[in-house]
Model the fold of this input.
Amino acid sequence: MQTSMAGLSGWLIRHPPLFTLLLIVLVSLVIGAISPQFWQMANLFDMARASVVTGLFGLGFLVVLAAGGIDMSFTAIAALLMYWLTTATAAYAPWMPMGVVLAAAAVGGMLLGMCNGLLVHYLKAPALIVTIGTQYVIRSFLLTFVGTELFVNIPMSIENFGKYEIWRVGTDNGSIAILPAYVLVLVVAAIVTWWILNRTLMGRAIFAIGGNSDIAERLGYDIRKVQVFAFAYSGLLAGIAGMLHVSSNRLANPFDLSGTEMGVIAAVVLGGARITGGSGTVAGTLLGVVLITLVNNVLILAGIPSTWQAFVVGCFIVLAGALFATREKR
Amino acid sequence: MATMKKLAVCALLLGSVFTIGTALAAGNKTIVTVVKLAGETWFTRMDQGVKDYGVKTAGVTTSEIGPGKADAAQQERLIEDLIARGVDAIAVVPFDPPMLEGVLKRAMDRGIKVMTHEANNLKNTQVDMEAFDNAAFGAHFNDQLADCMGKSGTWTSFVGSLGSLTHVQWADASAANAAKKYPDMKLVSAKNESFNDANTAYNKAKELLKKFPDLKGIEGGSAVDVIGIGRAVEEAGLVGKICVYGIGMPNDTSRYLKSGAVNGISLWDPKDAGFVMNKIAHMLVDGTEFKEGMDLGVPGYNNMHVKQGPGKGIIVTGQAWIDVNKDNLDKYNF
Done:
């Protein structure tokens, strides 16, 4: 028994995402026992839908974290681009197809991310501080120069994109559950991120610099190139995430998404990436996102009163974080 | 070139407005309304009421001004300018009431009449006008919901956050109203927080629909709650089966009101509020007494309740909510 336990924990250490998976199963079993409504297709669809924006943010954050940086500005980048592009498209080019809008959001996010990367590289300041700064600058720019009002007359192309369905099922109480097509964007982004991290020289450079930048530099890796790439990639995904948020929400609110970065960071770290950099996997990050989404979206099902919900989420994160810490010490 | 032309026309128009303004002001009392943010839909609508009062009433000139961005310091500077200009009365919708205590005191010391709106915690004002009592507003939501639900069934409520005082007051008053009047209505999982985010309201509404398959009524707290709830109801194919009421803005909510996913929204009309604010300011200039139960001549403001405010001034409260649904939506373009 002793040895099998030790064997199990050793196995978990070698495969951090499995530990996250274990937590997901555990939470599901507990909630399912409390509330049988948990076990239905509609819930799975809702979870998938709610994971998309967090998932895109998480993948971007994973790449920056793996390269030894931290990005705090991605929600601001997403908010700026989603509001600006939506209002501008509605005003000047309502006929613009969603593909073009998404591409514009990706390019815009990439450029802002590149600024982050260049600032971090040339100022030699901690990425945390630099990106907290750019977060304020971007958000303030949005609210001062672009707008503060809720915008509901979003172009039809953007709205329709959020309505494409992959799958639709009826539920027992006569209502309908829909799996929207935009979850595929997260699937594609996950595959691309996996490919970059595991199959390209850039991926190897990212982990090398995140692990130990001095040694990596001596080995001939171009730190500037890697840092700019990591932040640009995070910005690119943030831009796309912002447009998906508008598309599913059917309105653009410049105050949306602010404050959600903490959940994203928790998801990536609970997915097994070290906060100090140099590690992390796409599968782990996605599982971390599922875990955080799960915890955030089953509190009502579990019958927890709204006054206690933040408390429960907070306790869960501390507990899960502590479990991860003991895992790493062994 | 076109821009230059437009600018020239604007300048000409502006010039003529000022000339007429000064000419009229010679024997007229001047009342200026200072709002939180110039150009915002809400205050553009309020401006109609402000102008309307000036046009319909002899002996006063009314106008509305506001800072270009929502900022208490800029609002304070605008009021300083009005004191320097020596207007007769100022009607203010403060961005942050305590920030204006000093400048409003200076205005009153100079003999300028001061009235405020949505600032029942402000000390340095002569009259603060509130469109309605929050508890009565909450009960009103609940009465509408009860009518729609046939006075029985499971219902729940939303708030922007548990820290938003007015939202919590509405939700609590709704719950108390249901407990008193409708014994067959069952409140479940009350005061869900949307964090003023329509998407969060949507996610929580979906979860509530799963947890309580027999849910028949939902009340929104923040102005975007009904938008998220409406989308959840629409997507679940439950339009007509679930009653949704809450505070909201007519234009923002119109698509869900039209589809029937949201049954009705309630709010107060900034146009009426602007009119009544100027009426009150005018009464202060004329030295008219404020009596309990007085009629200010606008529906909802026919039976004003008068009580002592936190400072020397009084608070007058109306019952001025309007109910907007798909039938009367066209009347409210804001």
Observations:
- The CA atoms of residues 110 and 290 of chain A lie 26 Å apart.
- Chain A is about 75% helix and 5% strand.
- The interface with chain B takes residues 35, 37, 40, 42-43, 46, 50, 144, 148-150, 152, 172-178, 245, 248-251, 253, 255-256, 259, 297-298, 300-301, 303, 305-307, 309 of chain A (CB under 8 Å).
- The beta strands of chain A are 165-170, 176-180.
